[in-house]
Amino acid sequence: MAGATLTAALVLASCQTTPLPASPEVVAVAMGDYRFSYDRSISPGRVVFRARNDGQLTHELVLVDMPEDFPLSIDAQLHSSKRQAFPTRAYLPPRPPGSPGTFAVDLQPGRYALVCFVADPDGQQHALKGMSSEFRVR
Q1: DSSP 105
Q2: From CA 81, how far away is CA 71, in angstroms rounded?
Q3: How many helices (H) and strands (E) does the chain have?
Q4: Please, is 131 exposed, middle or buried when counting C-beta atoms within 10 Å of its C-beta (0-12, 13-18, 19+)?
């Protein structure tokens, strides 16, 4: 009986001193034809991106880090004749219409962008047709 009481006390004590991790923030991203729709107020920490292709075309989601001091927006950067490469943080492979996809990342305060580099039959990437979006984590 004393052993069971001691075991119960140890279990109870360990439950009280070990906090559970916070639930990650979830960002729902709708990938439409040539646009991303989502809430851009994203907090630092673990973030789960749940994307769904709501368009009629195949789309992908590439999350890139952007330097804070970079003078151009992501759209201007993509249309520049001197594109600069940014580190890829996460990648959701191409998804056909109606298809979902999810990834989780740890984000620090900073500047980020979502981009779709899938090309249409005309050879132009979706990013050049407006499928890019920039956000800041604060």
Answers
A1: E
A2: 15
A3: 2, 8
A4: buried
Counting every residue written for the chain, the total comes to 138
Q: CA dist 130 to 1, 109, 124, Å?
A: 70, 25, 11
Q: Which amino acid is at 81?
A: S
Are 131 and 59 in contact by the 8 Å Cβ rule? The answer is: yes
CB neighbourhood size of 97 (10 A) = 14
Q: With cut-offs at 50, 70 and 90, classify the pLDDT of residue 15.
A: low
Domain boundaries, the chain: 22-137
Determine the CATH number of domain 22-137: 2.60.40.420
| Token duo for residue 15 | 């439950």
Q: What is the pTM of this model?
A: 0.84
Residue with tokens 């759209």: 75
Task: Name the more confident of 71 and 18.
Answer: 71
8 A C-beta contact, residue 95 and residue 101: yes
Confidence of residue 3 (pLDDT cuts 50, 70, 90): low
